[in-house]
């Protein structure tokens, strides 16, 4: 009989330890997410400040290390994956998850406003998609899968996940602003798409929008992106394009080891096509057309 | 649903911890060197005669090895009374037996087919020994096994029945490799149950009973085709002492492929459920000790747990499949098998994950302890791997099927 009781206590102890460890891990994960949010919010604040200071000056200085950089998009994207995962683990009624989501929603709105302002004043456009959804509609789940794919594919398309089940006044204002009635609803720039939109259709809309607004949609990996930046440096160092600024060099495509760019040498003149090839030592060589 | 799952996890963990505590209680016994059997046997003047009954039904292939192994035992042949019963075989079993017809310690019997229990009972009528052994016709003994078993009966006059440790003979197919792991697990758990006087079954493959067992509680019964289990239940009910030998090892042939394994387990499952139902009054009965309060509840619970775990895991699998299908229909195949690198942050940290890890840890510990008990010192991880994969897929099916069969009384086949 004694053995049965001892066994019961040991079993209970293991059970409680398991719950304790689980709780510890989740707390540290929540902390981690809060840190990431802190980092993003600091970055937004820094960009805003710099932007305010340089209001009259050129926009160039604002971009470096700013909220428009792809790294920040990545951070925001990673955050949404983590939050979704924790929501699954702890349940959406968990208080910590609710607070986390609320802060995240606010952060997204701030980021959105900043990006809008930057693009208006500095003529630098990146694609922003506001995605209104609820957690329990079937079409929203489908739409989320599609958008997950989109944000994986396009490094600099920023998707803002607005979960309507959160009671966040700022988000409700945003909803009223766009008169959201059905979920899911997507807002790309100023275009509104109500109801589910498929991957193919949305990619197409995205490309049309990018063309119209002369925004760049990169579908490159981090390493490729670094290479593109290196290639731009090589172009700027070449004799022919020595005085061309970075904004006048736009990346077109990469095929195998060949990188293609369009370069505008003089204001108002026709852009020239420039090709570069990556050799075995990872050096770029400009190929004459 | 989460609550149900955690209740099951708790009970499963409870039983495993109980095993572990019992193991620690008898730690010395498990890790002791082999006892000096020879001393006891040598110092005994008149060794008991052991009547060994081998019931054969179409066993022409393996019967020779069984007979030879019995007479190769390190036990005086003059004290062996081997009774071979041909239970109406349709193959050459009876002809094969004939070459032993002039052997002075062998009795050959033939009868119409009537099932294994009838064959053993028929052999019992002709038995001369004070100890009765049953050996399956596809089983052969290690030379020391018989001596180890008899020694226990000499040194413990209260012992009524003793089961041997059963090991698989040369497992080769994947199905057999998986079973070899399972038998090692059995070796460990059975020994612990024996220490608690809670043996579930003395295996028909090789066991010894005192003759008075049959005089007191009767002979083998049909018992839903699981006569060894039913007899053990009856012995436990009568308060007899049922043991398990640590050192006596017998080798048995295991089903080679999944379908024959499946049929064997259907028979075991059906027999277990039916007999447990017949003897349900023993569960938590006051004077039944650990047999009633641990062995039976644990065995029944493990059946239930398998069913519940199975349903939950299939629920998860089906949901994942549906999700993948939706994903493919929406964005194509490209991302389905995409590997984004290992991310510790996306590993579930729910309490059930840690508890399951503990459960598996204890299970693997038990398997390795069983491995040492049967003197297997190999380090091949393949059997363990196959065991977990194969058993997690097919066990639920034979459990569910045998539950179905027991409820609707579907006839089952012997093989």
Account of the 3D structure:
The complex is a heterodimer of chains A (289) and B (415). By secondary structure, chain A is of the alpha+beta class. Chain A has helices at 2-53, 60-63, 70-90, 95-122, 138-153, 169-177, 199-212, 222-237, and strands at residues 128-133, 158-163, 185-188, 191-194, 249-255, 258-263, 272-278, 284-287. In chain A, 55% of the residues lie in helices and 15% in strands. In chain A, β7 (272-278) and β8 (284-287) form a beta hairpin. The relative contact order of chain A is 0.07. Chain B is an alpha/beta fold and 415 residues long. Chain B has a domain at 11-295: Spore Coat Polysaccharide Biosynthesis Protein SpsA, Chain A (Alpha-Beta Complex), CATH 3.90.550. Chain B contains 14 helices and eight strands. An eight-stranded mixed beta sheet of chain B has the order 3-2-1-4-7-6-8-5, with helices on both faces. In chain B, α5 (93-97) links the parallel β2 and β3. Chain A binds chain B through residues 3-4, 6-8, 10-11, 14-15, 17-19, 21-22, 25-26, 29, 32, 81-82, 85, 89, 141-142, 145-146, 149, 152, 198-199, and chain B through 9-10, 13-14, 17-18, 21-22, 25, 293, 326-327, 330-332, 335, 345-346, 348-355, 358.
Keywords, separated by commas or semicolons:
heterodimer, A: 289 residues, alpha+beta, 2 domains, four-stranded antiparallel β-sheet, 8 strands, 55% helix, B: alpha/beta, Spore Coat Polysaccharide Biosynthesis Protein SpsA, Chain A, eight-stranded mixed β-sheet, globular
